[in-house]
């Protein structure tokens, strides 16, 4: 028994090491969540499939999974508005239940999930931000698929995953802001170039030179940057 427990902990440690490596190296959110699902199934022997549920504005959706059957179990819960993954996401409390308890706690879901072959459920809350939160869900075909140790291990995995996903979201947000800034600077450079040409050609001051393309943009509806680019291109071709 002790040897079996040590072997199991070794497997869990290896899976967590691999998950940590993915979280350190990967930047794509979808890839991270997909790898989290696969690593958690490897780390917890009772797990046959996994998924990640995210609630946004109260609406659930599955954003990562190990197979189509996990998606079917998720959809069964979404369709009736109850079940372990929704309970974990909403209450932020780990849900560890066998199929008999499901019939008692969520009878509508038990009916919807009948025939999907799941006998045990384990869902842990997954919190990225107040706006985005959900659950990491494990499904087992075995009646006693999950024990207290499994719940503790899943919480450990979700803690590591939350940190990695937050870092990835910060990176994506920072990259988007940098792209927006780069675009704004490019737009300003083109507009300033067009303004300089207008000042030279029409012998007007900077304010009037800026107002001329603005007025045209309002009349014709193109973006000011696009109008300025066309104007500069026209002048360059005329010079050529």
UniProtKB/TrEMBL annotation:
PROSITE patterns with a match to the protein in the record: ANTAR
One protein family per Pfam: GAF_2
Record domain ANTAR: where: 171-232
Coiled-coil annotated spans: none
UniProt KW Secreted keyword: no
Keywords: Transcription, Transcription regulation
Protein name, as recorded: Transcriptional regulator
Species whose genome carries this gene: Saccharothrix yanglingensis
């Amino acid at each position: 028994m002790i040897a079996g427990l040590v072997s199991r902990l070794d497997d869990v440690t290896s899976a967590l090491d691999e998950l940590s490596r993915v979280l350190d190296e990967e930047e794509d959110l979808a890839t991270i969540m997909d790898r989290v699902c696969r690593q958690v199934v490897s780390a917890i022997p009772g797990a046959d499939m996994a998924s990640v549920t995210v609630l946004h504005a109260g609406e659930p959706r599955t954003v990562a999974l190990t197979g189509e059957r996990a998606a079917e179990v998720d959809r069964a819960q979404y369709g009736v508005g109850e079940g372990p993954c929704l309970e974990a996401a909403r209450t932020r409390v780990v849900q560890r239940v066998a199929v008999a308890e499901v019939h008692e706690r969520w009878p509508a879901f038990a009916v919807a999930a009948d025939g999907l072959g799941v006998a045990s459920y384990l869902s842990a809350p997954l919190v990225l931000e107040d706006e985005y939160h959900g659950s990491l869900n494990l499904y087992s075909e075995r009646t006693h698929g999950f024990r207290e140790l499994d719940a503790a291990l899943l919480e450990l995995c979700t803690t590591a995953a939350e940190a990695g996903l937050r870092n990835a979201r910060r990176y994506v947000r920072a990259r988007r802001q940098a792209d927006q800034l780069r675009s704004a600077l490019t737009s300003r450079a083109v507009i300033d170039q067009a303004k300089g040409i207008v000042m030279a050609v029409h012998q007007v001051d900077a304010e009037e030179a800026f107002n001329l393309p603005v007025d045209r943009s309002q009349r014709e509806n193109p973006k000011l940057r696009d109008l300025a680019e066309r104007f500069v291109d026209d002048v360059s071709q005329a010079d050529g």
